[in-house]
């Protein structure tokens, strides 16, 4: 396994029990529990209830963050598990989310973030001629530092 600064797991949860996706307290408990049982260290959390339905929320962890957005009317939840520690067990987090939201199907994607240059990024990125690799000049108002 090559070294990266972080790992970003995207979880698409289809066919969830709609009642599990509608209440911000329930969604919050589920995501906080997933973080804790994945060995992440919870710093803070915030969840927002949309009208007529749906919840978005974030759990800030010392290792980065877990977020969720729900669409009860479609039985769908999108979850991001972003962490910067090998101690975080994303598979356990997904197990908890499956238990809590009861999806009929899930799809996960894993993206390595901040792949260090000394590890030869060409092994991680397939070259695609449609995208330019040229330096882009930004306006001064956007430049940092």
Write the layout of secondary structure elements.
Blueprint: E1 4-14, H1 24-37, E2 42-49, E3 55-61, E4 64-71, E5 76-83, H2 90-101, E6 105-115
Antiparallel strand pairs: 1-5, 1-6, 2-3, 3-4, 4-5
Question: What's a concise summary of this model?
Answer:
Helices cover 18% and strands 37% of the residues. The chain has 2 helices and 6 strands. Helix 1 runs antiparallel to helix 2.
Which features characterize this protein?
globular; S-adenosylmethionine decarboxylase; 145 residues; alpha+beta; 6 strands
Mean pLDDT: 85
State the end-to-end distance.
Answer: 34 Å
Which band does the percent of strand residues land in? 35-45%
> According to CATH, what is the class?
Alpha Beta
Structural class: alpha+beta
Number of strands: 6
CATH architecture: 4-Layer Sandwich
Helicity, in percent?
10-25%
| Radius of gyration from the alpha-carbon trace, in angstroms | 18 Å
Overall shape: it is globular
The CATH superfamily is known as: S-adenosylmethionine decarboxylase
Largest sheet: 6 strands, antiparallel
Identify low-pLDDT runs: 121-145
Question: H/E order of the elements?
Answer: EHEEEEHE
Strand order of the largest sheet: 2-3-4-5-1-6
Total count of helical runs of at least 4 residues: 2
- Please tell me the total number of domains: 1
Here the CATH topology equals: S-adenosylmethionine decarboxylase
